[in-house]
Predict the structure.
Amino acid sequence: MELLILNGIVNGLIVGSVYALIGVSLTLLYGVLRVVNFAHGEFVIAGSFFAYVLFTGLGVPPLLALPVAAIAFFAAGWGLYYVLIPRLSRSDDPELMSFLMFYGVSITAAALMLLLFEADSHSIDYSFTPISLQVGPIYVSTARLVALAITVAISAALAVFLFRTLPGKALRAAIMNPEAIQIVGVDIVRLSAFAFALATALAGITGVLVALVFPAFNAFSGTEYTIIAFIVVVLGGLGNPVGALLAGVVFGLAEQMATVFLPQALAQIVGFAILVGTIFLRPSGLLGTSARK
């Protein structure tokens, strides 16, 4: 039993770190733009297929696909912002309209991936040497450990960016009070475009990691990761990137530890039970604050 618990903790940290990145990228969008991106999971799976195409078509290993995906998805996000977001600002209820619009984007993206890759599940047939490493008394897939190291590095770099650089501080200020930062001369449109592009790049990078950590993915997997992203965002606190990091790890640990003690059917609802309990006890989330008026 001790080995099972330790294995659950290790896998929970790995899976939770991936969930944390998904949540951070979505919370940046909501915090800065107040955009409810229901297509976020499709962006993540698009990153998985991006790595799949690079590997099967060009022989590019997943680790080298990470910077390529970051650049490609950042550029795509920058362009997508100017195509979609300015039209939302003219709506009477931008948040509701963003939900409806990105729901349509979600359906379109899933249909395109279905057209290109069909309904079969895909995986990247790539392995590290050695295949597994010993962590205490248990053996863990090297690919999963590499993914954990990458997510920790990205999270640390993101924290440095948000708290130590001027653009990062501007993003945090935009989350707290977008009207006030415009008074001091910040170009909110360019900052919003940057936030959208950064969130899209993080989604693409996370998609590559999903292809490493999870056994398979398909054109319909996006909805699952969208739901996970919303759970992490609400659990951590709306618009709080640090809260999303913590919530992703908590959700991943809860999900994996539940599989140790509960039947598979019941284990899947533990994370949702934690979410409901958090909303009842602390509606603003683990690290959230009261919503601004």
Observations:
- The chain has one domain: 2-281.
- Residues 111 and 153 are 33 Å apart (CA to CA).
- The chain has a mean pLDDT of 86.
- Strands lie at 132-135, 138-141.
